[in-house]
Predict the 3D structure of the following.
Amino acid sequence: MRLNRITSNPNRMSGQPCIRNLRLTVRRVIELLATYPDREELHQEFPELEDEDIQQALVFAASYLDDRIIELPNRDETVA
């Protein structure tokens, strides 16, 4: 997938990856997805954010995660 909506400018937002040169970072989009599980509400609060922006932000963020295996605690164990 071509990430043509993800931009980076050293003079904007300290060079963080942004959506279409807006002052909306990829990180913020991911946070918004967690905060607004209802996409319609997200679009009401951030009308400039398009579905393709969200898709590319997710692909971009996923590309930074490596495929290592992390042991998770057994469900019966208590996590401190």
